[in-house]
Amino acid sequence: MPERDGYIPGVPCWIDTSQPDPDAAVRFYGGLFGWELEDVMPPDSPGGKYFIGRLDGGDVAAIATIGEGAPPSATWNSYIWVQSADDTATKVRDAGGQVLMEPFDVMEAGRMACFADPEGAVFFAWQANQHKGARIVNEHGSLNFNNLETRDVAAASAFYGAVFGWKALSLDGGFQAWTLPGYGDHLERDNLGLRKGMEDMGVTGDFADVVAAINPISAEQGEAPARWSVTFAVDDADASAAKAAELGGKVLAGPFDAPWVRMAVIADPQGATFIASQFVAENKDVPATADAAAA
Predict the structure, then answer these.
(1) Are 63 and 75 a contacting pair, CB within 8 Å?
(2) Considering the chain, what is the average pLDDT of its residues?
(3) Is 165 left (phi over 0), alpha (psi -120 to 50) or beta?
(4) By C-alpha distance, which of 104, 115, 40 is closest to 77?
(5) Per-residue pLDDT at 202 exceeds 90
(6) CATH for 142-294?
(7) Domain 12-128 maps to which CATH number in 1.10.3720.10, 3.40.50.300, 3.10.180.10, 3.30.160.20?
(8) Tens of pLDDT along 236-248?
(9) What was the pLDDT predicted at 9?
């Protein structure tokens, strides 16, 4: 897939992980995914460290020091491309969400803000300047999906529809996702035949408009909070799970087969969780399992 050079409004564009010990996280993710990491913060910056992870010179994700006043637990964060962080803050308030961090400039990189949806799931808006988001996606060790874990899909649809124009899509096999009408047309310009290729695999053409996944929280998950999570593409889910454990992480579920993929749920050594997902076309008709729903 061609290297990305920016996104359109309403599309998740960047991820980073907030860590108590970013240097330890550098060792884990560098070892797991082969990232080359560079701390781009000025020396003695009051904001701590911000390591950009790269594959073949293209930005994929970042590892950051937990910000002052933020919860002390490690987590992965999702950023959504917007034209105006300030206008997005207004939309979030009007739709019943919370502005946790008012829009502010990040040097020359861009302008950002932090929000929570009505269920409490935290996400960020990114108004790009010099930093154009992830350059490499859907390759081994790079972002594959952003996932909203929610108990109330209907309420989430109303909120994210009002803020970003998203619509909910349900596919055979239990997969649910957010679509942004017109996104597939945008992708088609750089990937001629994208929709046709999906249809040849038996996937509805609407899948080309998918921007994120919906993971409904089941009763079996108890009091699990609504949140955004991330999925990384990997070449071999079993090997990635084994490597994560070798590096001090913990495999929470799997590896297991699910529709179209084989995946594992992993916690890094400081507790930030993520999914490692291997595309397996032969798994097209594999039924969704309880493990897949929990993931």
Answers:
(1) no
(2) 91
(3) left
(4) 115
(5) no
(6) 3.10.180.10
(7) 3.10.180.10
(8) 999 999 999 999 9
(9) 97
Q: Where are the domains of the chain?
A: 12-128, 142-294
Task: Give 69 or 93, the one with higher predicted confidence.
Answer: 93
Query: From CA 147, how far away is CA 211, in angstroms rounded?
Result: 9
Predicted model pTM: 0.93
Per-residue pLDDT reduced to its tens digit, 64-90:
999 877 778 999 999 999 999 999 999
Cα 207 to Cα 79, 171, 191, 293: the distances in Å are 21, 9, 14, 19
